[in-house]
Amino acid sequence: MSWPQDASAPEPTSLMLANQTPYSIEVGFDDESLRAAAGGGGLLLSTIDAADESSARAGLKITATDAAATIAGGGESFTREWADTSEWVVHATTTGGTVVRIDGQEAVRWPDVLPPQVDGLFTDVDALPAGALSVELQVVNDYDSTPTPLKLALMVILWLAVALTFILLVIEFRHSRVSAPLRVRAFAWLRTLGAVDIAVVAGLVLWVFIGPMTDDDGYYAAMSLSYGDAGYVGNYYQMYNQPFAPFTWFWEFLYYWQQIGGRSPVWLRVPALIAGIVAWLVARTLLSSQLADARRWTRTAAVALLALVFCGWWFAFSIGSRPEIVGAAGSVAVIALVLRAISRNTLVPAFAAAVVAGLAFAAHPTGVVTFAPLLLALPSLWTVARTGTDLLGAAARTAGVLSAGAVALFVAFRDASLNDVLAGRATFAAVETPQTWMDEWDRYSFLMSPIAMGSYAKRSFVLVGLVLLLWFVVATVFAKGRLSLPPVYRLTGWTFALSLVLLWITPSKWTHHFGALATVGPLMIVLVLIVTPRLLARSEESSVPSWLAPLAVASLIPPIVVGLSGPNSWAYSWDQGMFRHGDVPGFNAVRFDSLGLWLLVAVVSLAVAVVVIRRRFGTARSARALLAATGLVTVFALLTTGYLVATFALSAFRGSGYYTPGGANLADPLAENCLIDEAIEIWDASEGTPLAVAEGESRLTGTWQENAGWPEADPLPPTQAGVTVWGSANQATQSAGTLTTPVYDIPALDPDQRLVLLVGGDLNAAEPNSVRIEYAARGSSAMQQLEVDFPGEQPGWRTLNVPLPPQLAQDGGVLRVVAEDATTLENQWLAVSSPLVVNGRPLSAVVPPGAATAVSWTSSFWFPCQRPMSVSNGIFERPVMATSWGTGAPDNIWVEARGGQMVAPARTASVSVPYTEFDTAGTAWGNIQLLRYDVAPAAYDLRVARVTLPGWVDPFGPTALLVSAERDG
Hints:
Helix content: 25-40%
Strand content: 15-25%
Distance between the termini: 31 Å
Number of helices: 27
C-alpha cells in the first residue's frame, strides 16, 4: 500500500487494517514536508487520529515545530532539529523493530517497537513538493490463498482414488452374505411413515419461521458472507480476522447459500431444516427397526415420544446457522450405516460412514461426535473385514475404509493451507486462552446458569438424557450374561456416552454444542424408556424388585424440576410478545418446576402402570412397571415441547402492527421489506430544533464553558443552527462544576416527536456526574425534578430522551437543565446541549441503502437488509452505522486487545448514539451508533501480488501481534 496518491497534495485517509498492524511500514519525508507541517497544525503523519490518546502509544506519530521534528511510537520518542537535514526515513518491521535514519545514517533504533497500529494516514499538510512525503505498508493478508495447479491435480487424484476405493470395496463384497439384516430394509421405512412424521416435518417447517436464534447465528452468517470478499473464512468480528481453518467448508457453503437466496433468517435456516428432516427420518427408522415385532400402538407411542423429545431438543439447539446440525444428522446416519455394515457383512456402508464422519468433523470440532459409532463398532467391523480373507486382505480392506477420511482433508484444506491452521490457532491464543478438557465443567455451569445458555428447554432434555444414560449403563451391566442387547439399543446408548466424552476434549465449552447430540440424545432416551422394559419382560427373570420402578421414576424428578427451573430466555432475541419472557415456564400461578406437581405426576404414572400390569398379567412385579418412567418423561416432553412451541407461536401470531422476529419471518420470509428497519425508530439530536428561551441565562461554575469544553478526540456531532452546547472538559485542570441552563418553553409535541438532550462524557464514573431536568406545567411556578437516564457506557455523544409527564408534553410548560460534573478523575468530563425537539425516523431512513454497517453479531441475524462492512486484502471497509446489543457497553468488537473490527472506526470517526424506540420489545434490544468521518475513505494505492509457497510456510514471518504476544510471554 502506498500513500499519498497525489504526491503534491496528501489527503488524509482511512486505512482500517483487520490485523491492526502491518508487517512493515516505511515513511520517507524531507525538510520541505517538515516545514509544511510546522507551518500548519504541526502533524506530519499519524497512523491513528492524532486527537486520540493512543496515537503516540499504539500508533506512529510524526510532528514538527519550526525547529525540531519528533517521532513517537510504542512508548518511545525521538526529537531532532531538522534545519540541516534533507532526508528522513522511519522503517519498522516485525523482525527488526523500528529504525530512524537521517540522511542515510542510523539515528535511533528501537528493537522492541513493532510496526504501529494503523487506522488511517492523517496529516495537517495539504500541499507539498512532489516526493517530499511517502508511506509504504505491507498489509497482513496471508490467508487469502489459492490452490496451485499441483494442489488442484492432487485433489483430483484424491477424489479419483476415493471413488476407486469405493468401487473396489463394492466389488470385494458383492458376493457377501447377509448374516443378520435389519428388520426394516432400505426404503421400506417409506411405507411406515404416518401422521407423526407429518407432524414432525410440519413442526420443523414452522420452527424455521417462528423459532428463536441459536447462539452465534448472526456471527456465523456474517463470517460466511465475508468469505467472498476476504477470500478465506475468518473470525470477521474480532481476533484480527484470524482464519478458521481447517473448519471452513460449512461457512463456505453458507456463503454460496446466501448468494442464491439472500440473508433472511428463513433462508439461512433451510439447511438446518433439511438436516432436521434427514435426522428425524433416520432416527425414527432405527427406532422402528427395534420395535418391528411390537404391537402397532406400541410403535406409534414410541415414535410419538421420540417426536416430542427430538423436536424439543432440536428446536432448542439446532435450527439456526450453526454447524452442529451436521454433527447431529451425521452421528445418527453413521449409526445406521455402521449397523448396516455389520448386519450385511460388508464394509461398503462403513466406508460411507467414514465419509460422513469426516465431513462432520471438518465442519466444526463438535462434529467429532460422529466418530463415536465408528470407534465403538471397530471390533465388529474388524470381524467383517476378516470374513473370507487372510490378515493381509483384512488390513487392505481396513485401509480402504480408513482412506475415506481423506475427504475430510480435502474439505479442510481445499482453499486453505497448514500455515492458515497454525497461524489461526496462534492468533486465537494471543487473544484468548483456549479451553481444555479440564474446563469441561464450564459447559455444565453455563447449562445451569439462569441465562439463555441455560434456558429451560436446553437444560431439561440434556439433564433427563444424562440420568437415562446412567440407567442405560445399569441395564447394560445387568444384561451381561443374561440378555442379548439389540445392536441399535447398545450402539446408540454408548454413542451418546462417548459423544459426551468427545465433547469434553473440544476447545470451547458453550452449551449450544449440545446441539450436536440433538438426534442421538433423543433416540437414546426413547430406546431406554421403551426398549428396556420390553427386554427385561422377555428375559427369564421377568420379575423385577418392587422398588425398581419407583426408584427409576424418582431419579427422573430432579432433572425435570431443575431443568424446568431454567428461564424462558433465548440468545440475543428480544422476546417480543413472548409469554413470561425471562421467567420460569408456567401458567398463571403454576410454575412448571414445582416439585409437588412432578411428585403428583410420578405417583399417577406409577399407579396407572401398576393397575394396567395387574389387569394384564395378574402381578405388579412385571418389568413393564418401568413404563411408569416412560409415562413421566412423556408428560414432561409434552409439556416442555408444547410450551416451547406455544410461546413462540403466540409471539409470532400477535397480529399486524406488532413486530416480532417470528411474525416478520411469516410476513416477509425473504426479508425483502426490511420490517425490522421500519420497526426501529430513531431520534438523532443532530437533527433537533432548540427550544425557545423563556427567561434567564445560563449559569456556569467551575470549568464549564459555553460552546466549548470537550476533548478534541470527541468532536461535537453536527447540530442545527441555534443549538448551544456546554462542556466541562479543560486541559489545564480537572473538570468540575455545575451548569444551569436558561428556562425554556416546552411546545406541544406531536406523537412522533421527542424532547431530547445531546450529551457527551461520562455519568458512570466512580464519582458520578448527573443530569436532571427541572420542569413546571404552564402557569405553575413550582419546579419538579426529573433525573435523566444516561447510558454512560456507550461511545461518543448520546441523544437522551427527556421523559416528561404526558400531560406536560401535550399542553406545554417550561424546563431547565441542571448538570453537575462532580468528578476529580482524569479524562472525565460532561457536556450537555440545550433542549431539542426531534422528529422520529425509521432506521431505514437514517442509514443509506447499501451503506456499510457493523451490526453487532448478537443481533445481526435479525438485520438482513443491513450490508455488513466488507474486509478485503486485509482492510476493513469503514461503516457508517453500528449497533450494540443490550443496555451495557458495546461488546468485544469494539475492544482493541481482542482485535475487534470497530476499534479503528471508533477512533477515527465522530461517534454519536441516537435515542431509539423499538415497540413491543420484551427486553432491551440495544443501541445504534452513527459514525461520521472527516477523511477520505480510501485515498491510497493498493498493489496485490501473489507468491507461491509450500502450504506449511509462513510467507512473511509472524505478524506484529504474535511477535508482541510471544515477547510478552
